[in-house]
Structures are given as C-alpha cells and as structure tokens.
Amino acid sequence: MYSALKHRVYLANIALTKHGLITLTWGNASEIDREAGVVAIKPSGVKYEELSEDDIVVLDLSGRVVEGSLRPSSDAPTHLEIYRSFPEIGGIVHTHSRFATVFSQAVRAIPPMGTTHADAFLGAVECTRRLTPEEVEADYEENTGRVIAETVGSRPVMDVPAVLVSEHGPFTWGADAAEALKNAVILEEVAAMAWHTAMLGKEREISPHLMKKHYERKHGKDAYYGQEKR
C-alpha cells in the first residue's frame, strides 16, 4: 500500500552505509507521508546488508504499526515526536557518525568555522542539554525527541536542519528522507572540519556576514546557486 514511501526510505537507509555514516546497525532513516498520516522507518536491529524494501515498517503518528511484520527502530518514538513538533519536516536521519558523535559526547555544539558549514547550516549545530534521570527512565526515546524540539526552540527548523543529542549522536532532517540523508553527510563532514580546525588553534567563528551570504545564496527566495528547476 505504501510501496513508494517504503522504497524511498529503503534507499535512504542503504545510502547511509554507502556514505560511511553507519557502523553495524547504528542508525536509521525515515520519511513521513503527511497526507496519509504515516511514517516509514527502518526495522530495529536488521543488518543493512540483509535489509530489503519489504522490511521497512510503516507507523501512524501514535506509533501503531500499520504495515510490516518487524519491530520498528527503537528510535521511532524520537522520529515521531520530531514529526509532530515540526510540520515542515518530511524526513529524518539518525546516525552515530564519528565526528558528529564526538561533539555529541563532548556535549558541545559544532561551531560555524567556514563557508562549507554556512552553505548548509545558518549558525552552530546545537547540542541538547543532558536528559534528566526521570526523562531517561520513562519514555526515553520520546523525551529525546522533545529535547531536540526544545533545542531548536523558536529558530526556523530548516535553517539548521540538525541537532546533536547530548552524549548520544546526531539527528538531521529535511523535506524528505533523501534531503535528511544529504544533511547527515554534510553534518559529518563539517564536524570533521571543525574538529581539525580547532586542533590548529583557530577559535574565531566565520564572520556573520560571510555566513549569511553563503547560506542565502543556496537557500531562500533569492538563492542563485545551481540551475533553475525545469
């Protein structure tokens, strides 16, 4: 019934391995069909080399399985909470990619050090606060989604389409699963660049006017990077 949605989510999950963002089964991708009110996501613990399109699980926004025979990702409640919080989001990716996770474990934001960062993210990629013992003990995964929403706050959610979860790892998003995947790839690269730049002793972030210029030439109504859509 949801074959097209499951196909897109399958491709996004497989692409995570191709881009080197996944170790073992540490990660997942999902996409929402807002009109149908369902989310497709990778099943829990299934090896990527064994994953098939038919394995993708479809849930409603309350977490009830509506298609699929396997258990959904244990991170599904986090994805669902993000989708409920931000109607603009159409796809989500979670990984434990090395450099982004290093910043998560250090409970530090990824600072905007140069134009590569600014091309995708308008400002720092923030890290959430630590979850309380109560938040971890009860509804842990859903509370992870809530603390992500809390960290985004009043900022336009698509201006910085990523958050680092404290002591855990990164979540990225986009208009669909493919765009969320692209942002996960970019996030890992800029995290690696930021780490190595800091090792060279640079502390100053990119100039605000240069960051704004680079972001706006790729995003927004006056963007001029690339070709017009035909």
Order of SSEs, N→C?
A: HEEEEHEHHHHEEHH
Tally of helical segments? 8
- Could you say which structural class the secondary elements and strand pairing correspond to? alpha+beta
> What is the distance, rounded to the nearest whole angstrom, between the alpha carbons of the first and last residues?
30 Å
How much is the radius of gyration in Å? 17 Å
The name of the CATH superfamily reads Class II aldolase/adducin N-terminal domain
Number of domains as seen in the coordinates = 1
**Shape label:** globular
Which second-level CATH architecture applies?
Answer: 3-Layer(aba) Sandwich
Feature tags:
230 residues; alpha+beta; 7 strands; globular
Please outline what is shown here.
The chain is α+β, with helices and mostly antiparallel strands and 230 residues long. It is 39% helix and 14% strand.
List the helices and strands and how they pair.
Layout (H helix, E strand, L loop, with lengths): L2 H16 L8 E7 L4 E4 L15 E4 L4 E3 L8 H10 L5 E5 L2 H9 L8 H4 L14 H5 L2 H13 L9 E4 L3 E6 L2 H23 L8 H9 L14
Antiparallel strand pairs: 1-2, 1-5, 2-3, 3-4, 5-7, 6-7
Helix pairs in contact: 1-7, 2-6, 3-7
Fold and architecture overview:
By secondary structure, this protein is of the alpha+beta class. The protein has one domain (3-216): 3-Layer(aba) Sandwich (L-fuculose-1-phosphate Aldolase), CATH 3.40.225. The chain contains eight helices and seven strands, in the order αββββαβααααββαα. The chain has helices at 3-18, 76-85, 98-106, 115-118, 133-137, 140-152, 177-199, 208-216; strands at 27-33, 38-41, 57-60, 65-67, 91-95, 162-165, 169-174. Strands 4-3-2-1-5-7-6 form a seven-stranded antiparallel sheet, with helices on both faces. β3 (57-60) and β4 form a beta hairpin. α2 runs parallel beside α6 and α3 crosses α7 (177-199).
